[in-house]
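Margin note from the TA: students keep mixing up input and output lines. Inputs are the sequences; the output is the structure of the whole complex. Example:
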Amino acid sequence: MDLSAINPVLLIASLMVAATPILLAAIGELVVEKAGVLNLGVEGMMIVGAIAGFAITVESGSPFFGFIAAAVAGAILSLLFVVLTQVAQANQVASGLALTLFGLGLSALMGQGYVGIKPPATPKLDIPVLSDLPVVGPILFSHDLVLYLGIALTAAVWAALKYTRMGLILRAVGENHDAAHALGYKVVRIRTLAIMFGGACAGLGGAYISLIRVPQWTEGMTAGVGWIALALVVFASWKPWRALLGAYLFGGVTVVQLNLQAAGVAIPVEYLAMSPYLITILVLVILSADKSSAPAALGRNFHASR
Amino acid sequence: MTNQSSGPLLSLKGLTKAYPGVVANDTVSFDIGEGEVHALLGENGAGKSTLVKMIYGLVKPDSGVMELRGTPYAPAEPRQARADGIAMVFQHFSLFDALNVAENIALGMENPPAMRDLAARIREVSETYGLPLDPYRTVGDLSAGERQRVEIIRCLLQDPKLLIMDEPTSVLTPQEVEILFQTLQKLRSEGTSILYISHKLEEIRTLCDHATILRLGKNVGECVPSETSARDMAEMMVGSALQTPERSGREFGDVAMDISGLSVPSPSAFGTALKNVHMTVRKGEILGIGGVAGNGQDELLGVLSGETLTEADAVKLHGQPIGKIGPTDRRAMGVLAAPEERLGHAAAPEMSLTENAMLTGSVRENLEKNGFLNWGAAQGFAEKIIEAFDVRTPGPENAARSLSGGNLQKFVIGREVLQNPDVLVVNQPTWGVDAAAAAAIRQSLLDLAAKGCAVICISQDLDELMEIADSFAALNEGRLSAPRPTQGLTVDEIGLMMGGAHGMEVAHV
């Protein structure tokens, strides 16, 4: 066993990378749930985003277009959920599960020609001087832009929910859709936009896995990250910064346990492998002991003729 | 009354709105004058709600026009109605529990100022009108009266020309009602018109300048409330002579139910704990329990019905401790209950009336045997309720949700009354029910008591309690006042028993 082989600076830098897909998906889902919609299709939207981003990047040679395509693909897939739940009034849980299964199948079909290909590398931030600083440089100034986008999105969603009228209306719709309707807000339109935002975020998260984290395409490569993101939203009590904390915690423990495995620590691999789930859930359960609760209309369908 | 020469503020001409199978409004026309308090009267389903929704832009009329100060007015959405100076206080509060007062108010405004300025405005306006409010409190923690203040302030901040109020006094104490009326009169003197919807005819007589009466979607008459008796107005609403419940002289029997030293915490986070409650009710007696909603009514019902278990000795039936016995066994012993919340507590919304009849009737009506359900008998029981209580529905196979509030209430009360209880506990038996149906329900409770049943009637409608109850007690913050005979009680005494005006004050300026 050789713990000195673990470099703390690289560890932190890589945990940020490991956390970003979860963070992106969780922030998207947080907005969706704040609007009162429970979309269990995160996993499906992520994996479709992963292959769409991968394919477009390979074909166009530009990761930028790839990420755009991933967001668009996630949003388009989420429109299917919109049609089912907002237009046809279908059950949200069943529709979300169907979306995940559909996304997994669709991505396998789309990805048939892309197995084993290496995508063009995504450029990383490289600021002279800053990026070369010891410790601070690799941690803060040497990542790809999408990672910063994830953090910026967290801040933006937090500020929007707390300080803007748009955020207030979104929360109102998620809290009591009948009252929001009576005041003249377009419940279905607001929820549709929230669901599409969630889809786009999930798509970005998926593409981050296939283009940066791994980076290659294999079937079912999101491997449950979408479900972790869903759980994270609940355990984070629908608060953006807690979702970020949870994502980084999960990413961090994942990276640490991989390093420990590599260093040959005398703990059975199975325990190490389950540790990220256990620790993340434990910490967030303790944090969520306060009074904040779910949006009151979460998972309930809205119909205007009451 | 200002500018009477300039014609009406809002005039409705031939408004018609039909839904599949029912015409909600049929060529309704009337005018609301400037600075006038105009009452809109009618039974449940007479089309009052649809009419105000058209004025507020939530529903589009099929035909007919509205004119606001002589110019055509056809709001496509509430936003536009608000911009034109129409504001509305809803019957079922349109508030968001998890948001604070200022956020709730901002949601109802077109161009709200920054939160800090808005909070200051809320403080200022609320104090001017004697409705003090803390803008940063979470609405979920407020009492019903305070929640209504939030709605009213939300409207007042927009300087409305017309304020629509849908059943505003149903949740207030008499003192709070008086203060509300002073606020409304102050608004009227400032030139604001008010369209006032209520079932309470005496209120309309004291407050309103003019009344329009709707029946089955049609305008069937107008009157000046102060010159018309409540009875005449009620008969115009119903379209036939009204039966007043009759109380026959009754002898009370032994004590049927005895509650002593009962203290229980509330099962829900926003609830009220019951504190040292004592009461007895005798056979043939109707005990009325008044008090503003949220002072322990739901908790008391839970304790009496057996949903909340207590110390065995705290609740006694015919001297026998039943505090630890659950609802089904209590039903078998003759203690029945009809809770307030019709959809979800008293009835399962998505289930048919037959199934709902089965849910509480299975024990006493022998609707099940060895764990198998006798659906034929349940349907028969449901039909019996529908027939006896004049529940208007195509048949017992319809879902409870499809009934109007008043009809479902008749079904829910009838279901318990027909099971011949020894003790019947009802909470808000006539809430949202029109005058004729309310009279029928009250009569059935009186008849039941005449047969020797002990009835505990929890209600916020004081007129109702005065009409049927033999003794009266009030719940205030989980404490029950000592019961007193209803004969000779004055409104002031009752108000004091209910805990006074809950921090309201008379409008300044």
